Write a sequence for this structure.
């Protein structure tokens, strides 16, 4: 499985607390800033660097993403996405959503702070398990699914659905960027959903004034009957996004959660293709046909799993399950 990349979306303006000094050159550990002491440089991306750090007051381990303000001034989409993530992070409070802390900035850089989770990314956990399973078969990956154990998959899928239901019903927003890389695992290996930068107000929601005003200010559809911005990652986008038509944000989240469920069960994406991105999108637009023809789907021996996947991955968004239906489905209903 390959990692997925996402397109950007818009956000809203935040007031940020200022620290005292700018950070030094890239890849060097910054000095203590914003009540945190930096521990290690974790990774670099096109838009930012990521560090581990500890809070000076209680020693809690956190992850800090550092963005150059000069870059953000030049890339409005990235700036809005970061501001949206920080805004949503301030209001969410759910056991299966990443915990965010107040951002801060220096004269040159913006710092986004989140709790560190010991289980790492769900993507990495699935990749590691799939590799081990393939080795156990002598490298014969074609002999069947390379997903996680079913009992674990069911629990993770239910936790993800509960996190999305909270975002939809309590916060009034759709996530719009569900993917394995945006799901962390905590010390108990429970879901912690992150990647909130592409959230958008659901048109019929009761979003908090701060969130709704932010969406209206940036024209992302708070007063429309549908959302229109094309966003997400290629393996996870719903057919209506590929087709470039207006869409229901809650429904595209259900679709992407269905892709995650399929991946957890099989170690593969349901509409993947080795030929081209265009072929992936062709399969997504004809989802009902290609799901049934997928050998990994055909090999599933649990009819309840297949039924849930069919209904989460319906090509017709109006026929697709709601999150309530997902959580009430026999495959997940009594999962603890």
């Amino acid at each position: 499985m390959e990692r997925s990349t996402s397109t950007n979306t818009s956000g809203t303006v935040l007031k940020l607390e200022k620290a005292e000094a700018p950070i030094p050159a890239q890849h060097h550990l910054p000095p203590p800033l914003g009540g945190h002491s930096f521990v290690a440089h974790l990774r670099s991306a096109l838009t930012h660097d990521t560090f581990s750090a500890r809070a000076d007051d209680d020693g809690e381990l956190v992850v800090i993403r550092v963005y150059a303000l000069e870059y953000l001034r030049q890339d409005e989409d990235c700036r809005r996405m970061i501001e949206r993530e920080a805004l949503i992070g301030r209001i969410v409070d759910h056991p299966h959503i990443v915990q965010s802390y107040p951002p801060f900035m220096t004269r040159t850089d913006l710092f986004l702070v989140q709790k560190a989770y010991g289980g790492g990314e769900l993507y990495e956990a699935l990749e590691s398990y799939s590799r081990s399973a393939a080795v156990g078969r002598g490298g014969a990956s074609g002999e069947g699914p390379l997903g996680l154990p079913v009992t674990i998959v069911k629990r993770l899928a239910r936790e993800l659905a509960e996190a999305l239901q909270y975002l939809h019903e309590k916060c009034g927003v759709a996530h719009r960027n569900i993917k394995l890389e945006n799901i962390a695992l905590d010390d108990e290996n429970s879901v912690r959903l992150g990647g909130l930068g592409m959230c958008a107000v659901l048109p019929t929601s009761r979003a908090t004034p701060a969130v709704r005003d932010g969406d209206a200010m940036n024209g992302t559809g708070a007063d429309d009957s549908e959302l229109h911005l094309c966003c997400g990652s290629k393996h996870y986008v719903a057919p209506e996004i590929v087709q470039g038509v207006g869409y229901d944000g809650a429904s595209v989240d259900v679709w992407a959660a269905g892709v995650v469920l399929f991946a957890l069960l099989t170690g593969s994406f349901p509409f993947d293709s080795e030929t081209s991105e265009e072929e992936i999108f062709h399969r997504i637009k004809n989802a009902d046909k290609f799901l049934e023809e997928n050998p990994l789907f055909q090999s599933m021996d649990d009819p309840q799993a297949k039924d849930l996947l069919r209904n989460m991955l319906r090509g017709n968004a109006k026929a697709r399950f709601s999150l309530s239906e997902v959580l009430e489905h026999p495959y997940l209903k009594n999962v603890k």
The domain at 120-134+144-204+231-334 is CATH 1.10.510.10 (Transferase(Phosphotransferase); domain 1). The two ends are 28 Å apart (CA to CA). The chain has two domains: 36-115, 120-134+144-204+231-334. The first strand starts at residue 17 and ends at 18.
